[in-house]
Write a structure and sequence with these properties.
Two copies of one chain form a homodimer. Chain A has about 325 residues and is α/β, with parallel strands linked by helices. Chain A has three domains: about 55 residues, 434 Repressor (Amino-terminal Domain), CATH 1.10.260.40; about 130 residues, 3-Layer(aba) Sandwich (Rossmann fold), CATH 3.40.50.2300; about 130 residues, Rossmann fold, CATH 3.40.50. Helix content of chain A is about 45%, strand content about 15%. A six-stranded parallel beta sheet of chain A has the order 2-1-3-4-5-11, sandwiched between helices. A six-stranded mixed beta sheet of chain A has the order 7-6-8-9-10-12, with helices on both faces. The interface between A and B is large, with 60 and 60 residues. Chain A binds a DNA duplex (16 and 16 nucleotides) through α2 and α4.
Chain lengths: ~325, ~325
DNA sequence: ATGAAAGCGCTAACAT
DNA sequence: ATGTTAGCGCTTTCAT
């Protein structure tokens, strides 16, 4: 009924418990024939070390904590889904599992604190590094091992490994793509100024426009990340100055881009033919909407891989030099451009 | 540096370690003043029981295993995301965490087996109960505790708690909604016949149509779950018999519905005005596409809640009577109808 | 109501 | 190269 233990294997193989432990953890220490004998007993019994016992002894849990942020309905946020999957996959390769926990209403640090104090996880992957998020700083003070997906925007001397995607490079490529297709009046619909990620992405658009000597006057708009904001902003930009009516839109998110598509549909304009549109994140929405939304895709699989690498070095050598990695996203071109 | 232990608390409170354990697990056993003294020591030290030690002793892990299925790109599958979140949330309330693992390429049971043999999780939540999925049967043979989100379609004498959503009721409501709006030629675009879920959803459409004495001849189509299949199927249905040209489409998924919207866009038809469309799952896509896709929404939060309830009773009383629960989805009406 | 003793299954340190 | 000893932090008897 209960799974076999080290002792069961030892008895069957006619060796001591320690030898079995070595066979599992330090096979090099065993003589070839002993190892084989032990291995056979392990196979026959279907032995696998008891996690709780091993965790207690080694003071590790082989678990990585990840806080799941609430699902935002009404937006096109495909990132988390893909990222979680990539993280689970790469963690497995490294011998870790991912433990999910959720935000506590009143105290955002509660979940982290409890898991830490109960030694339930070895480390965290933090994903929300937006301005004012207290987690990173708090975890650092706590000396808790963690890596972050997202730059430590507000903390230049952060000492934890991080991986982020170069949003500016993404929007720059998107804008260049449109410019290459002959567009000159490429508008920007982004987020409010207090979003560093938003300003980062905006800067890529600016860079591309200015790089071609094009003026951006009257072509930008900063709004909330909702479909209706995108719809209103694009309608406004299209109606503002007839002489500088945008022929293309680059958006800070697929959500905003869907708003633009909405405006076009209302006006009988056809995306990709009459007006070009580019989104950000390559969400499912971008993939299934007609005629396909061109979008900037984040290399989440690579991000997850590098985060786990960072985690491993952090856990094996806590004082190793810290590094941040900036990944370049790619543009997925579809019908809308 | 290391977190405080039971012994630390005991020393500080001037009681034995056992008394501290009781204070945590059986506070009723302590005298009020002792309890308060211990509690104060706990608070001062920030003590939380070491998970590994507790797990070893109690032979539980307070962990629920959930296999994350691969993200299907190019489809509108919003279900998993919301479900995982709901599960994490309700699990927390019940004192459990969710451990994620991923599918092994060659052996789909590997992940389950390893976690079971290493006693890393207390139970599983199984989500893919489609035809031919060996997990449920395998877990049952293994006497592993699990609950499933999805009926045991192919196993009438399954003995595990399950929760599922009444797909037929959903499509029936969707179809009735269209009939109430004056449509009579309501077409169905669903999945291939070997999908029980697909046939279930299809039966709801049939029931609604026949309930109003309407013929379904030439109005149905069974295809793969891709956008292009939905596009092709709807185009075909619109072109087939002019006398029975559909004025509305009910689809087995939002993915298929997006294909229908694609066909409409190509032909200059306006969803909701010229042709009505209803999808299934209330994905993000349905929420952000213009002019909004009416869709059947699954009560995932309730499903997660009931699954955790089932899990608790399963783990506390393994021989308690098994129950299955069928939940009724709701229709979210948007511009497309 | 509180305490003492034992042991869950494993591995690190040491001995052989 | 293999075995012995000890103990990780906790909870479950059982005794007081």
């Amino acid at each position: 009924m209960t799974p076999p233990t080290l002792a069961d294997v030892a008895e069957r193989a006619g060796v001591s418990r320690q030898t079995v432990s070595n066979a599992v953890n330090n096979p090099d220490l065993l003589r070839a024939d002993t190892l084989e004998r032990v291995q056979q007993a392990i196979d026959e019994l279907g032995y696998l070390p008891n996690r709780a016992a091993r965790n207690l002894r080694t003071r590790t849990s082989q678990l990585i904590g990840l806080r799941l942020s609430p699902v935002l309905e009404g937006t096109a946020t495909a990132v988390m889904d893909r990222f979680v999957h990539a993280l689970v996959w790469t963690s497995k390769e490294a011998g870790y599992h991912v433990l999910l926990f959720s935000q506590d209403e009143e105290d955002p640090l509660q979940g982290y604190d409890d898991l830490l104090r109960s030694t339930a996880v070895d480390a965290f992957v933090v994903t929300d590094t937006y301005l004012g998020n207290p987690q990173a700083a708090w975890l650092r003070r706590r000396r808790a091992p963690f890596v972050s997906f997202g730059r430590p925007w507000d903390d230049p001397d952060a000492k934890h490994p991080w991986v982020d995607v170069d949003g500016a490079a993404g929007t720059e490529e998107a804008t260049r793509h449109l410019l290459d297709r002959g567009h000159e009046l490429v508008a920007w619909i982004g987020w409010r100024k207090d979003s560093w990620i938003g300003e980062d992405r905006r800067s890529g658009w600016l860079r591309a426009m200015h790089g071609r000597g094009l003026s951006t006057t009257g072509l930008a708009s900063r709004v909330e990340d909702t479909v209706s904001s995108g719809r209103d902003a694009s309608a406004h930009l299209l109606d503002a100055d007839p002489a500088r009516r945008p022929t293309a839109f680059v958006c800070a998110s697929d959500t905003l881009a869907m708003g633009v598509l909405g405006t076009l549909a209302t006006r009988g304009l056809y995306p990709g033919r009459d007006i070009a549109v580019v989104g950000f994140d390559d969400s499912q929405v971008a993939q299934v909407v007609h005629p396909g939304l061109t979008s900037v895709r984040q290399p989440l699989e690579e991000a997850a891989r590098l985060l786990v690498v960072g985690l491993e070095s952090l856990l094996s050598a806590p004082l190793s030099p810290v590094e941040g990695r900036l990944l370049t996203p790619s543009l997925v071109v579809r019908g809308s451009s």
